[in-house]
From TrEMBL:
GO molecular function terms listed in the Swiss-Prot or TrEMBL record: chorismate mutase activity; prephenate dehydratase activity
Domain Chorismate mutase: 5-92
Keywords, comma-separated and alphabetical: Amino-acid biosynthesis, Aromatic amino acid biosynthesis, Cytoplasm, Isomerase, Lyase, Multifunctional enzyme, Phenylalanine biosynthesis
Domain ACT: 279-359
Cellular localisation: Cytoplasm
Primary localization: cytoplasm
Function per UniProt: Catalyzes the Claisen rearrangement of chorismate to prephenate and the decarboxylation/dehydration of prephenate to phenylpyruvate.
EC number: 4.2.1.51, 5.4.99.5
Protein name: Bifunctional chorismate mutase/prephenate dehydratase
Xref: PANTHER family: PREPHENATE DEHYDRATASE P PROTEIN (PTHR21022), PREPHENATE DEHYDRATASE-RELATED (PTHR21022:SF19)
Residue span, Prephenate dehydratase domain: 92-267
SUPFAM superfamilies registered for this protein in UniProt: ACT-like (SSF55021), Chorismate mutase II (SSF48600), Periplasmic binding protein-like II (SSF53850)
Amino acid sequence: MATDPSPNDELLKLRDAIDAIDTQVLQLISERARHAHRIGEIKQGNIYRPEREAQVLRRLADDNPGPLPPQAVKTVFREIMSACLALEQPLTVAFLGPVGTFSESAARRHFGAAPTFQPMATIDDVFRAVESGNASYGVVPVENSTEGAVGRTLDMLLSTTQMLCGEVMLRVEQNLMTRDTPLNEIRCVYSHAQSLAQCHEWLNRNLPGVPVVAVASNAEAAIRASEEERAAAIAGQAAADAYGLKILAANIEDDPANTTRFLVLGEHDAGPSGRDKTSIIFTVQNKAGAVVSLLQPLAEEGVSMTKLQSRPVRGFGSGGWQYVFYVDVEGHQHDPAVARALSRIRAEAGSLKVLGSYPVSVNNS
């Protein structure tokens, strides 16, 4: 009479099957890498194609049979593509540092682990690194769902010669961390001003009366907390890992949907991917209804506007105010409807600058 296999026998068979699959996966990844390397030899020049990567990640997420969730599939294949791209064209990516910032997390999410990542002291330095050729690409924050626009990034976009070729939407998870200090013994909390604002209510409830000190970045806050007795920092998991801190309280942001949007800078924008955005800057003539008149072509051409931000131009004082308008629209600048709308806006605007077209963040698509 046959007996059922023991649990240990079944485990051995399953592990043998996994080992065989792993070997097949490795062979296929190696084959993919050889194809990618050959593409680099044929194309030469710029190899990075953000629209192609977005299309691949979306297709794989759509074709995913489970049980892995779509985001896990995207993460796995992002790293495979990152490693393959490094064979074709090693990249250097500048980000707003120091190490352990949300900007670094956004850069690694977008490009994977293979590039060389350069922390920069300021947003201006990120732009300069890309403009000078010292970095292939740069990643900068542009807006937060709680605290609004990052003004310095908007100012730099007005003058830069670089283009936008990508965006990253990063869920911001704020954590309270220390070297080894209990919550009731904390005497100072460091963080970036935006992070302190995002955790205002939690701090009032849990650390009433404890001084909060705004510093240049969350990573700097983590550095200070790692060096000072009875000090804490509010920062992301990456900062805790980088500076050897323990997380006392996780996800302390007041808004659980708190998200920061980052932009990717480069010498080129992206080709059409099928789900794109286009960013522009324009000025208006000083007359009644000028802004409404310039936005009308978007509505008439059926182009959806996803962002409208105004900002004063530097150098117009003593009552001489001048504003520029930052607009994001759905679609690629080469899409017929978007192209017609931009042509009409250009004819009427005081000036128009197309910052670039790029795929919608694959985290949201």
